[in-house]
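User: For my dataset I need records formatted as: sequence, then C-alpha cells, nothing else. Please produce one.
Assistant:
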Amino acid sequence: MKSISELTDFYYKELYPYLEELEKTRIHILSQLKWYGGIGTVFFLIVALWMGKNFGLFHPLMIAVAVGFVLIALITYRTMTQGYAKDFKNHIITPLIGAIDSHLSYNPDFIVSQYLFERSNLFQHSIDRYTGNDYVKGSIDGVPIEFSDIHAEYQTRDSKGRTQWHTLFRGLFLVAEFNKNFKSKTVILPDLAEKTFGNLIGGWLQSINISRGKVIQLDDPIFEKKFVVYGDDPIEARYILSHSMMMRIVEFQKKISYPLFISFVQNHIHIAIGTGKNLFEPTVFKSLLDYKQAMEYLHTLRNTIGIVEELKLNEKLWSKE
C-alpha cells in the first residue's frame, strides 16, 4: 500500500490538472448559490414582514413558510451540487483508491449491506431507514475488505402522533475477514459510562447491561480506560484481544479522533467510526486546491484502508481451521 507522501505526489502530479478544471466549476456553482441565496433571503424577508404584520411572527402559517424556504434551499443546493460531487468522485476519489491499492474497487452509489451492519451487533436498536454511499470492496494483502458510509436511523412518534427520526449511527462502517477463527461474539464499545460517572457507578451501569452479555475485564489499563468489552466467552475474547491487538486499537483510536466501535462476529471484524458525516463529499465552500482539503481526503482514505495494516489483519499468526 502506498504511503501518504506517495499518494500526495500522485494527487498533485496526476490529478491536479483535473482539479483545476473542477475548481472552476466549484467557483461557478458557489457564485450561483450566493445569487439565489440573496434573492431567496430578500423574498423571504418580504413575505415574513407581510405575514408578521397580518398574522404574527409565531403564527403556524409563518412557521410553515419558514420550513418551506429551508426545504427549497436544501433542494436547490442538492440539485446544483449533485453533478459536481459526482465528477469529483469519478475523477478524484476513484483514481485515488486505485492508487492506494489496485485490488480495490469503488462504487459511489452502493453501500455495505444492512445484514452485515446488523450482524456486527454494535448497535442493538431496530433500524427503520438505512442509507449510505461511497462503497469500496476488494482485498488488502489478501484480506477481503469492504466499507462505506452508513446512516442508520429509527423513528418514534411523539404524544401527538408526529414521526421523529433519530440517528442510530452515521459514519464509516467496515467489515474484514479476521485472521483467527472464533465462535463467540465480542463487542468493544467506547467507555462512556465510566468516563461520565466514574469507575464505581460507570462500572455498575456497564455490568447491568444484560442485552450485551458479560463485561469482560482485561489487564491493559489504557485499553480499559477507553473501551468496555462485552462478550459471551471471556476466554475467547482474551484470545482475540491480545496485548498487541489492544495496543493497536488504542493507537488507531488516537489517530481518528471519532468514536470507535469494534466487534468480532462470525470470523469477521466489524469496525464503525462515528464521523457524523459523509467522508468523501466535496463541499463547494472550500477550494479543491487548498492543501489542507487535499490532505484531509488523502488521510481519510489512507487511514480507512490502512485499518487492515493497523490491526495486522493480514498477519496469519494463527491457523484458521
